[in-house]
Amino acid sequence: MDWMIIEPSLESRLKLECTCRGIQEATDLGQMQALCVALTRQNWHQSLLLKQAVHHIGKLESEQLT
User: Fold this and answer.
1) pTM
2) Cβ neighbourhood burial of 6 (10 Å; 0-12, 13-18, 19+)
3) Strand, helix or coil at 1?
4) Which residues 6+ apart lie within 8 Å of 23 measured at CB?
5) Average confidence (pLDDT) over 29-57
6) Cα R_g (the chain), whole angstroms
7) Helix, strand or coil, per DSSP, at residue 7
8) Digit-coded pLDDT (tens) for 1-39
9) CA-based angle 14:33:37, to the nearest 5?
10) How far lies 9's CA from each of 1, 5, 16, 62, 66, in Å?
């Protein structure tokens, strides 16, 4: 399951750090609420998609073994 190991580039890690710092510096409650709602919805969707993808990959791998 080496394909599940994530090795982000330095550029990707720095971009994430900038985004996180921007969020930490935010002071507008309405913007923070909207961001939290959007992230919660996105996380829910990605979680379902990832679960479905891993199940599909497992199914394909088990079919290869037979």
Assistant:
1) 0.71
2) exposed
3) coil
4) 32, 35
5) 96
6) 18
7) coil
8) 687 789 999 999 999 999 999 999 999 999 999 999 999
9) 80
10) 20, 13, 11, 32, 37
